[in-house]
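for the writeup, i need someone to sanity check this before i put it in the appendix. the sequnce is what the collaborator sent (i think, or maybe the updated version? ugh). structure was predicted straight from it, no edits. if anything looks off just tell me and ill rerun, i have time this weekend
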Amino acid sequence: MPELDHVQPAQPWQRGELEELQRRSSEVWPAYREQLRANPDAIFVDPELIAAGCVRVAYDHNGDTVGFSCTIPHDDGAGGYDLDGLFVDPLEFRLGIGRGLIADATTRLRRLGGTHLTVIAGPEGKGFYERVGFVEIGPAQTRFGSAFRMHLDL
């Protein structure tokens, strides 16, 4: 069973690899498969966010990429961040990679003075976010349907 070995900032040359991982991770869910094919622009890792250090990549003990996250500071100056993306290779689901990426984000954001982390979770991801400490704070809407706005105090 692979284990998360380390997490570090993404490099610009990894963008294509991360977008392919995002696609594989997202297309696992039948409800999204057709929507993603109809909206190919939904699979996108912003190179500016990579350059800013917002995208973090998880590696297993073999050095293989197994997941990534993206956190973006809120514009309100209150220490909040958005978890803009969390994707794990589907072959690595339920092995602690997502949990490790959340732990990396919370540790790093606390050091940066962060106070809270929010995420918009679809129905498929809500249980995961609850298990790692997020609480639902209200409904949300995405272009793919209804979702949940969730919050984690740092």
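The mean pLDDT is 93. The CA atoms of residues 15 and 46 lie 8 Å apart.
thx in advance!!
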